[in-house]
Amino acid sequence: MFDFINPETLYQIVYQFVFQLTLAVTAPLRSNSDIYWAYLLSALLLGLLVTASQHAQTPSQTSTGEAQPFTFIKGFFNKHFSASLWTHPSALLDMRFYFVNAIVFPCLFAPIALQSPVVVDLLSHISNNWTNWTSLSEVVQPSYWTDLGVISTFAVKALYTALFFVAYDGGRFLAHSLLHDNKWLWEFHKIHHSAQVLTPFTSFRVHPVDLIIMVSVPALTTGLVTWLFICFVSKDINFYTLLDLHIFICLFNCVDNLRHWNVWLTYPAPFDRWLISPAHHQLHHSAAQEHWGCNRGFELAIWDRLCKTIITPSKTPMNIKLGLGDEDQTAWKTLTHLYWNPFKSLFKQVYTHHKV
Length: 356
Hints:
- By secondary structure, this protein is mainly α.
- The protein is about 60% helix and about 0% strand.
- It has one domain (about 90-355).
- The protein is built from 15 helices and 2 strands.
- Mean pLDDT is about 85; it is low at about 60-65.
């Protein structure tokens, strides 16, 4: 059956399949995973605190009128770990898509996505062959400021960590906006918004073409920042890390699993003007037309404020209908639908346009 396949090639295919599947299964044990156990535990504790706060405002009582201070725990688990949520067809499809995409994307699509180091190398190659830039770099040496003692090693690391994060978050906002505003790219991003319920696995309900955009655009922005930093500040750059991960990304990961869960967490003022809370992102998933395209940012709200796409959620939980609004949800019920329907829609658009 496999005579036409080189044994070494077959071995590599099987090896990659098993390797990527193992990474997907062991994701909660790896600190570079979005669903690392510490991040999931943090989301759980935050969810309990939010529920406790909401419960304190409207405490339940017994038939004798006595307050029940800890009934919120039962209510929390009944709501957020209910069978109706986790066995919903949309939630089950998210989990299947997570495992299949964990194999498909790294093996077939990741090699064509841009990476920040590649952008840095490309910019370095261009600048090395540009006479004006070469002359400028001779005047401003990367070690100039540190040699003078103007900037300490601590300050260099702190500055690079902060600038990289801002560039990364801005790149993700730009990529996300492209996916919403370009009608062809929207066909792929629809997959994510077709979810009818939200669980942490909904984060992975992303078409491979969507992922390529979401990886490549931030690679451009962070690559540019890194290259400029190498040219003008320090060649020996590094970030501050926590749990072996960029410290800002690590800290926000402690909250981000609530973005795709039905826990209504908002930030207190004035932080709700500068940061995207889980409630902000749940509004982004709303099927209501007035919410379409709002709150596109991931961590920083400054991008949405500049582009006037910000909608600040109310402090009290809102009853949100999720999905694509008037779209036919039967188009997103199987893995085949999720992978191939965007291509079918694009072909139909192109064919109709050409026919007209």
